[in-house]
Amino acid sequence: MAKVMVLDHPLIKHKISILRNKDTGTGEFRSLVSEIAMLMCYEATRDLPTENVEITTPIAKTSQPMLAGKKLAVVPILRAGLGMVNGITELIPLSKIGHIGLARDEKTHEPHAYFSKLPEDIDQRLVILPDPMLATGGSAIQAVDYLKAKGCKKIKFLCIIAAPEGLEALEAAHPDIDIYVGALDEKLNENAYIVPGLGDAGDRIFGTL
Length: 209
Ligand code: PRP
Ligand code: URA
What we know:
Elements: E1 3-6, H1 10-20, H2 26-44, E2 50-56, E3 61-67, E4 71-74, E5 77-78, H3 85-91, E6 96-97, E7 99-104, E8 111-117, E9 125-130, E10 133-134, H4 138-149, E11 154-162, H5 164-173, E12 178-184, E13 187-188, E14 194-195, H6 201-206
Parallel strand pairs: 1-12, 4-6, 4-9, 5-7, 9-11, 10-11, 11-12
Antiparallel strand pairs: 2-3, 7-8, 13-14
Helix pairs in contact: 1-2, 2-3
């Protein structure tokens, strides 16, 4: 089965609680999404391989660990995933960035693809796939389908809030990916919004409410 990690860190919990508040404004919301993404990325990169490299300090020559040659790509699911990109690339500035544009149909809740652009060598890269919300799971499943069709072998999906329904669906569809969740909520409502959730992540990040 997929490796699922619900991040249990007081800083992440605190920041997500502020996100949930309907009175949190766009500027603060955007900053928090970026900060949470950075904290989640710290956890998600815990298993990156390192190799020893010769370094000369002002005092001595030494052999010290640095990230091994593995290449990374950050591929946000548009729009809301964009809000998580800066926090991630601040930690791993050498990552390339791709984009997958998906919009959920308001009635059917099915995702519709409208854009994609990936680094040419995406099949050689470890892909970090951020999207703040995992609701029915349709968007994440479609994004992973697409990445796998492009040859991606190692994918880490990062979401700030997940519904149990979406998590179950994503795990079942893609048991070989790693899934990092900031908070696992109660359920979906009749409009397939996460309860209690935070509302529409894209609208709150971009101020399009
Ligand atoms: C939201 C969210 C996810 C998707 C989750 O995006 O950012 O991509 O819905 O729902 P699902 O798990 O049921 O597929 P939305 O389609 O609203 O687009 P946006 O980011 O442009 O607002
Ligand atoms: N998309 C969102 O932005 N929020 C939800 O609760 C569900 C889907």
